[in-house]
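Appendix C: a fully annotated inverse folding record. The material below is reproduced so that readers can follow the format used throughout the book. The structure is listed first as tokens, followed by the designed sequence.
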């Protein structure tokens, strides 16, 4: 009896691909919302913040790569690891920009 319950439980919940899909959709979708906000309102304020840190303003357009292209690739499951690396770098830069201003 216990073996059959264990087998049924394992068969019902053992879907690693479905779990990866759910994680990609959730993570990529939430990241994409940040990118859409940047498309709607522009990256001018990011360029100003970069210039205050002594960096060139054109780096602000990298936000589009990090918050639009990378999440789309993650959701689609294409180049997932490099796209996650690009997004992680985007988060590090954002963290440093906010943290160094204090």
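Designed amino acids, in order:
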């Amino acid at each position: 009896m216990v073996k059959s319950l264990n087998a049924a439980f394992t068969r019902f919940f053992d879907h690693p691909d479905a779990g990866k899909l759910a994680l990609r959709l959730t993570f990529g979708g939430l990241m994409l919302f940040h990118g859409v906000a940047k498309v709607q309102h522009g990256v001018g304020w990011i360029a100003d913040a970069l210039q205050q840190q002594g960096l060139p303003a054109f780096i602000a357009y990298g936000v589009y790569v990090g918050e639009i292209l990378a999440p789309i690739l993650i959701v689609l499951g294409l180049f997932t690891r490099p796209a996650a690396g690009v997004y992680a770098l985007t988060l590090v830069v954002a963290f440093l920009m906010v943290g160094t201003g204090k």
